[in-house]
Specification:
The protein is of the alpha/beta class. 44% of the residues lie in helices and 22% in strands. Strands 1, 2, 3, 4, 5 and 6 form a six-stranded parallel sheet that branches. Strand 1, helix 1 and strand 2 form a beta-alpha-beta unit.
Length: 183
């Protein structure tokens, strides 16, 4: 069974991004993957800001990423990029933390004007972390995500293309697993 880590980079306690992450994690589980979700906002702020990679919670996340076959990296768009909270965690990961992993970037935001943040802000950082297989990412408009408590409901007209991207990511992770086991 392949393992996927979902990194949710929203700083907000009530978050469409976090709800979308939970929704997509459920879908990935239905597709046969073991999924662990990390809400970066729940990590100790002092450890994140002081780059304390020895802190047990930070070390746990670094270990989860290290053992994962795939990583879904999600964030709301802030200032035409991903959240500073997510950047703080990504800065703590080892230089080649994403080497050999399939990575899916997902951003949420209020305007289609931010869709390029995936390719111009997030993808370069993922690549710099050693990701050699960053699948096409997806941008989800806030208005297409309905919050029902902690759960996300997706606009049916916009859910299908997102599911195609997530399913392709899941397939790429599953296909890569035997290659990693052989090396």
């Amino acid at each position: 069974m392949s393992t996927i880590v979902v990194l949710s980079g929203s700083p907000s306690a009530v978050s469409r991004t976090a709800a979308l992450c939970a929704h997509l994690a459920d879908r990935l589980r239905l597709l046969g993957h073991e999924v662990r979700t990390v809400h970066v906002r729940d990590l100790p702020a002092e450890a994140l800001l002081s780059a304390d990679t020895g802190h047990p919670r930070i070390a746990e996340v670094v270990g989860l990423v290290g053992e994962a076959d795939g990583v879904l990296v999600a964030s709301p768009v802030y200032k035409a990029a991903y959240s500073g909270l997510l950047k703080t965690l990504l800065d703590l990961l080892p230089q080649f933390a994403f080497a050999g992993k399939v990575v899916l970037p997902v951003l949420t935001g209020g305007s289609p004007a931010h869709v390029l943040a995936i390719d111009y802000a997030l993808r370069p950082v993922l690549t710099s972390l050693g990701a050699d297989h960053v699948v096409p990412g997806w941008f989800v408009l806030d208005r297409h995500i309905a919050l029902h408590g902690d759960e996300a409901g997706l606009d049916p007209d916009h859910a299908a293309p997102l599911y195609r991207v997530v399913d392709a990511f899941a397939s790429a992770v599953a296909a890569r697993r035997p290659l990693l086991a052989a090396s």
